[in-house]
Amino acid sequence: MRVKIIGSAAGGGFPQWNCNYRLSRAARAGMSGVHSRTQSCIAASADGAGWVLFNASPDIRQQIAQTPELQPAADAPLRSTPIRAVVLTNADVDHIAGLLSLRERQPFAIYATAQVLATLEANSIFNVLDPAIVPRRLLAPMEDLAIRDADGHETGVVVDAFPVPGKIALYLEQRGDPSADFSSDTGDTIGVRITGTGSRGAVFYIPGCARVDASLRTRVADAACLLFDGTVYTDDEMIIAGVGQKTGARMGHIAMSGEAGSIAGLADVKIGRRIFVHVNNTNPVLDENSAEHAAVKAAGWEVAGDGMEMEF
Ligand code: MLT
Ligand code: MN
Description:
Blueprint: E1 2-7, H1 22-29, E2 41-45, E3 51-54, H2 60-65, E4 83-87, H3 93-96, E5 109-112, H4 114-122, E6 136-138, E7 145-148, E8 154-163, E9 166-167, E10 183-184, E11 190-196, E12 203-206, H5 214-220, E13 223-229, H6 237-241, H7 262-265, E14 271-277, H8 291-298, E15 301-303, E16 309-311
Parallel strand pairs: 3-4, 4-5, 5-6, 12-13, 13-14, 14-15
Antiparallel strand pairs: 1-2, 1-16, 2-3, 7-8, 8-11, 9-10, 11-12
Bound molecules: D-malate and manganese (II) ion.
Manganese (II) ion is lined by residues 10-11, 40, 92, 94, 278.
């Protein structure tokens, strides 16, 4: 089983188009140790030929352009793709907008929870993917669902989806009610356990998670690899940076640091490799020369970059 991190940044990417914060500036200037990143997506393949994407980011066209494995093979038909299916972990813009770029009457399958399928259904622009060509399938929390292509052939990638503490997508929040509680742990945001034909261990992909609780700790124990929500280093980082009013918690993202953070929360759990993904453009770990980056490494974590690949 091969797993490739296609995009390691959070919504907006790094640098973000309108961001003038020091980190985006450093990335634009090509400062050493500060690498640009595209938005949140990973890909998995059991046979090295067909690939299952996890999320479809607004950067999908660029991501395919820089990933030969996701391009049509030289001997393939005039219209073709090795992308067999897309599994969605929530309905955030950075996870579903890329579907619009995958039109062209090209068959593949979409897997998502009932809530995320309802969002696709409610927004008719997604009908550029005709469900007769691109079937939409329910990803119910259950044991081991074999991911199949549009024709129903197994890809060899197997997914076990589970709800995680999170929240509904930003654009689904009712306007004018800033005090409302938009948190959800019923499938608006999910994590996935990825295994497959011949795999020697499980990879967990959890790009959005508001809390590390006992059930999550138990679930990810013994993972070969955990790809986890690395949006913010400290909860109030976006406020301190002066770029926004929201805390990480308000956005459904646990901070890396602190007593209630993910590093502490997962410290005692046996995990082969732990890697932060979905890194926001305010997160100081994006600078490899920062004290925060050093602290994360010292705690046994890696910070994902685009193109990072693993086999398990
Ligand atoms: C998130 O991860 O919280 C969202 O992607 C934020 C957004 O919609 O920009
Ligand atoms: Mn996001």
